[in-house]
Amino acid sequence: MLIRANHERKIEGGGCSWSYVETLEPADTYTITVPRKKGKEAREVTIQLRFEKLTIKSPQYKKLENIDMYALTATEVDGPKE
């Protein structure tokens, strides 16, 4: 299952989820074609993948279990400045 996150989560060991994953060395690098869109041509892009198993801490005010999950980022290398 893939879940999109739109804000940082505190993790066991200190720090926050995405800030931590961004410090990891890339696991792999791929070149892919992004299809053209209205007003933009198709282009080749290079992306780097980073991932790690994390334990997301439950909020302090709730009596919930921590959650083990994998965090993954796919980041474009030297993408256009828009």
UniProtKB/TrEMBL annotation:
Source taxonomy: Bacteria, Pseudomonadati, Spirochaetota, Spirochaetia, Leptospirales
Alphabetized SUPFAM superfamilies for the sequence: Ribonuclease H-like
Protein name (record): Uncharacterized protein
Protein species of origin: Leptospira noguchii str. 2007001578
Domain of life, source organism: Bacteria
